[in-house]
Design brief:
The protein contains seven helices and five strands. It is α+β, with helices and mostly antiparallel strands. Strands 1, 2, 3, 4 and 5 form a five-stranded mixed beta sheet that branches. Helix 1 crosses helix 3.
Length: 235
């Protein structure tokens, strides 16, 4: 029998929203009450505005109530997205591959990164990741700083050999001194000063990729990407 070549059907919006809600509720059991409270507060504020703006009419109160409902739904979605992001970082913090997951999903279009490490110690699972963007080249170490020294130096030397003059920043993921927590990794990288234009960035990516070698992959933690389940905007 011929095997079907139809593309795999992606989950719909409401399916993703349901998954996001369940994931958030596992970390914060009180979230259903908080979301309901935000929606009710939005309705109450809308109705109050309808009574305060003269002339008072039933249609005006209803219209403002509906506006408050939509505002409350958006507020609830925003709150759930923020809470799910926090829960995701708490879940993957300390897991092998968490840095790669953040680099590949949270940096945006101004950075090029892969969830796979560019250097790895298969025995200890210490790993080095790399991302290239307007802030230059960022090398991220995940694991013991002492064991990462050689991997970091090898990667930095390789980058500097093919992209001389491009700033190279080294970050270590962790909770110690001079280390960056997983939840702050994307913000720290995106906060670097922009010293590379887009043309240079593209050239650096091409040069570095040409000397890169594939390495043994680490397990990548599977979290919920809050950007994939945004609330609909009222029309």
């Amino acid at each position: 029998m011929a095997r079907s070549t139809a593309p795999e059907k992606r989950p719909g919006f409401f399916s993703q929203l349901r998954t996001l809600f369940r994931f958030t509720r596992e970390a914060y059991p009180w979230v259903p009450f908080a979301l309901a409270g935000i929606v009710l507060a939005g309705i109450a504020v809308g109705v109050l505005i309808g009574f305060l703006i003269p002339p008072v009419a039933i249609w005006s109160v209803i219209l403002w109530g509906v506006t408050g409902l939509l505002a409350g739904i958006l507020g609830a979605m925003f709150t759930m997205t923020r809470l799910s992001t926090t829960a995701m970082y708490r879940k993957i913090d300390g897991m092998p591959g968490s840095a790669g997951y953040v680099l590949s999903s949270s940096l945006g279009r101004n950075w090029s990164a892969s969830e796979m490490p560019v250097g790895v110690n298969p025995r200890t699972q210490d790993a080095v990741y790399r991302t290239i963007g307007r802030g230059g080249v960022v090398i991220v170490g995940e694991g013991s700083r002492g064991r990462l020294t050689r991997l970091i130096n090898d990667e930095r030397a390789k980058v500097q050999r093919v992209a001389s003059g491009v700033p190279v920043t080294v970050l270590f993921v962790g909770h110690g001194e001079d280390e960056v927590a997983v939840k702050n990794l994307a913000k720290t990288i995106k906060g670097l000063p922009k010293k590379v234009d887009r043309a240079t960035m593209a050239a650096v990516i091409k040069r570095v990729d040409s000397v890169s070698q594939s390495v043994t992959s680490l397990p990548i933690p599977k979290g919920i990407d809050p950007q994939r389940a945004r609330a609909p905007r009222p029309r």
